[in-house]
Amino acid sequence: MTDQSVIGETDGVAVIGAGSIGSAWATVFATAGLRVRLHDTAPERLEAALGVVADRLDKLYARSLLAEPPRSIIGRIVTTRHLSDALNCAPYIQECVPESLELKQALFVELDRLAQPEAILASSSSFLPISRVASDLAGRHRALIAHPGNPPYLLRVVEVVPASFTAADVVERTCLLMARCGLAPVRLRKEIEGFVFNRLQGALLREAYCLVRDGIASAGDIDLLVREGLGLRWSLTGPFETVDLNTRGGIAAHAERMGPAYLRMGRERGQNDPWTEELVASVEAERRRQLPLEDWEARVQWRDEMLMALIAWRRQAGIGRPGGADQSDVE
Ligand SMILES: NC(=O)c1ccc[n+]([C@@H]2O[C@H](COP(=O)([O-])OP(=O)(O)OC[C@H]3O[C@@H](n4cnc5c(N)ncnc54)[C@H](O)[C@@H]3O)[C@@H](O)[C@H]2O)c1
Predict the structure, then answer these.
(1) What DSSP designation does 193 have?
(2) Can you tell me the distance from the alpha carbon of 37 to that of 83, in angstroms, rounded to the nearest whole number?
(3) Which residues' Cβ are closer than 6 Å to ligand 1?
(4) Structure pTM?
(5) CA–CA gap between residue 214 and residue 208 (Å, rounded)
(6) CB of 149 within 8 A of CB of 155?
(7) Interval 158-200: pLDDT, tens
(8) 44: number of Cβ within 10 Å
């Protein structure tokens, strides 16, 4: 299957809701060469959206992040106040209305009624599994979640989350479209509220709120620790690879040495999810397929060199030092 089976040369995509996420999706699709019909029920949002897109395209172009001038890209976006106009002939529809179950359920009834029979109906929802939104639709086989990070035109990953009723080819075509737009699709194996992105963010935020509540650290200090510490590393390696590289012997050694402390901290918060031997072994096996232990030293060196490059860029940009561009929240 080629990506032409998702969107042909003359087709466009429909983006429903022209707020933060809708205008960013319009940027993504138009930058990828697709025609976009952007719809919103609020005329002022629709009016503002093209200016928002034009402004970010100018900034991307100034940083050599676009392959063509902004004017050509923005020329591919049209706005419409009529839902049926937006859906006309669109083989792919990206819903971006506020995070309300009732609102999304009602809108999906309309999308299923008005869209082309084979059009894919994708929701940007941050938390709601598509089975809660679209179960009762005749065309539910073509509904799924395509959840971006914010802003989608800069964070190049998207969670693709089907329900058990979503057709396999709908998932496949959505992943192809996302890849064509330069976003890495991460297909979840099962539905879960909040998907993976917001579950991970939620785990950190829950603890951060507890630490502020208990008087351990200020919100600003927690942001500082993440910005200058955890986050800097996470921009190169995810949480599993981070600890794999932090401990000689890799992630299995990390789990053996640190696992009991993490278990105690979890229990302190009412969570009892031990990293069992079997669980650690499965993560370890995946890590060793990605990085054999004999390559561990080289990868640690790579991480350190990339951190140096990042730190050098941040210094130039005035980030990460007292009084720098990112220090407004540090007293
Ligand atoms: N903001 C984020 O960080 C983020 C990240 C990923 C996903 N999301 C999800 O994306 C969706 C949109 O979020 P947002 O931050 O862009 O919200 P937003 O409030 O910025 O924009 C929502 C837009 O939808 C419009 N709208 C409301 N009802 C409508 C309808 N029936 N038809 C057409 N347009 C309608 C509103 O006028 C508004 O312009 C939500 O489901 C949200 O959870 C948000």
Answers:
(1) T
(2) 10
(3) 16-22, 39-42, 45, 96-99, 103, 107, 124-126, 147-148, 150
(4) 0.93
(5) 10
(6) yes
(7) 999 999 999 999 999 999 999 999 999 999 999 999 999 999 9
(8) 9
